[in-house]
Design a protein that fits this description.
- The protein has 378 residues and is an alpha/beta fold.
- Helices cover 30% and strands 18% of the residues.
- The strands form 3 sheets. The chain has a 10-stranded mixed sheet. Strands 1-2 form a two-stranded parallel sheet. A two-stranded antiparallel sheet has the order 7-8.
- The radius of gyration is 22 Å and the shape is elongated.
- The chain binds S-adenosyl-L-homocysteine and iron/sulfur cluster (SF4).
- The site of S-adenosyl-L-homocysteine has 17 residues, from strand 10 and strand 12.
Length: 378
């Protein structure tokens, strides 16, 4: 005899992760479950200001609502896999995602501010030749929950939310792994939670998106959120930038700088762009390059950040000498620019810029590709 009853499969109920929502998203969510939208700001406060992930602790919600939320929702952030503290106080966190992969998030305490360097993707497709994330290839975009979850997890882990009510962080830079403008739909709501007074309440001048120069993304960003902008320029002409930042072939310097001007005209967060320039010995660091850079940036309100190159295994680049960096900076200052040479932080734990390389399961097979050496340009 055959059993004709339909197979009983246990319904796998996936709960909605509330870390995926900014305020508007959260209001929509509460409407969708038949609740009043004002619950959104109450719940955002519990989650992001008090670090609470247990609905039972949300004491200004009715018992019924708490029970309902326990059934259908969750607050799930990446877990700390390990942390490494540098001699200078910088802490690198490896965070484990539900998919089993790891990403890196770096906490940088300073006298008058604390900055979190947040990742936006697992790996990166842009493939800049001096960046260790690029060597890892690309796996996928992070979700909004995984992006804001880095902030939530580190703040909670450091114990600075929930207990003292103090703001755990003053600055966030989207300068970890990945190109944020290639994941704009998840990055924008995450940054919106960073800015929201019911969540982290950061100043829009203190949330910075750094990009290799994705022009359509830049134009879209200005209409969606107000944050400070950093541009990874790294070369004063297209010929050299094509080699260092290959996306330049698609979005060349003149058009890119015009897009940056449009961005600052359309945002209230800042009236100038931070131009990032990594100092590569014998590649982009000559006096001629400095003068060319001064010329090319003439029309862009900006300040210039010179970033000492952070080496990583098997790189063919070296960092420019201190004297070279000083001289390069002087030429730019004489041309009227504000120039800051970025202090390298967390170098002893590989947490410095461009050294963030999680365990990426590469989908591009880039790691297997032959490395084509770049010729130093005089
Ligand atoms: N993808 C974005 C943001 C992440 S990279 C971008 O490229 O802007 C953050 C910054 O670190 C960028 O300015 C990047 O060019 C720089 N960087 C990458 N590799 C580096 C390295 N090895 N040494 C120093 N800076 C590096
Ligand atoms: Fe990607 Fe930025 Fe690294 Fe370039 S520098 S490969 S854009 S993470």
């Amino acid at each position: 005899m055959t059993d004709t009853a339909p197979a009983q499969t246990a319904a796998v109920q996936t709960k909605t992760n509330l870390l995926n929502f900014d305020r508007l998203g959260m209001e929509d969510y509460f409407r969708s479950i038949g609740e009043k939208p004002f619950r959104a700001s109450q719940v955002l406060k519990w989650i992001h200001q008090h670090g609470v992930d247990d609905f039972d602790a949300m004491s200004n919600l009715s018992k019924d609502l708490r029970a309902k939320l326990k059934d259908v929702a969750e607050v799930r952030a990446p877990e700390v896999l390990f942390e490494q503290m540098s001699d200078d106080g910088t802490i690198k966190f490896a965070l484990r995602l539900e998919s089993g992969q790891a990403i890196e998030t770096v906490y940088i305490p300073e006298a008058n501010r604390s900055t979190l360097c947040v990742s936006s993707q697992i790996g990166c497709v842009v493939d800049c030749s001096f960046c260790s994330t690029a060597q890892q290839g690309f796996n996928r975009n992070l979700t909004t929950a995984e992006i804001i979850g880095q902030v939530w997890r580190v703040a909670k882990h450091l114990g600075t939310i929930g207990q003292t009510g103090e703001r755990p962080l003053s600055n966030v830079v989207m300068m970890g792994m990945g190109e944020p403008l290639l994941n704009i739909d998840n990055v924008v709501p995450a940054m919106s939670v960073m800015l929201d007074d019911f969540a982290y309440g950061l100043s829009k001048r203190r949330v910075t998106l750094s990009t290799s120069g994705i022009i359509p993304g830049l134009d879209e960003l200005a209409g969606r959120i107000d944050v400070a902008l950093a541009l990874s320029l790294h070369a004063p002409n297209d010929e050299l930038r094509n080699q260092l930042v290959p996306v330049n072939r698609k979005y060349p310097i003149t058009e890119l700088l015009a897009a940056c001007r449009r961005y600052i005209a359309n945002t209230n967060a800042t009236n100038r762009v931070t131009v990032e320039y990594v100092m590569l010995d014998g590649v982009n660091d000559s006096d001629v390059h400095a003068r060319e850079l001064a010329k090319v940036l003439r029309e862009l309100p900006c300040k210039i950040n010179l970033i000492p190159f952070n080496p990583f295994p098997q790189t063919r680049f070296a960092c420019s000498s201190e004297e070279r960096i000083d001289r390069f900076g002087q030429i730019l200052m004489q041309a009227g620019y504000t120039v800051i040479t970025r202090k390298t932080r967390g170098e002893d734990i590989d947490a410095a810029c461009g050294q963030l390389a999680g365990k990426v399961l590469d989908k591009t097979r880039r790691a297997q590709r032959k490395v084509i050496p770049i010729l130093p340009v005089a």
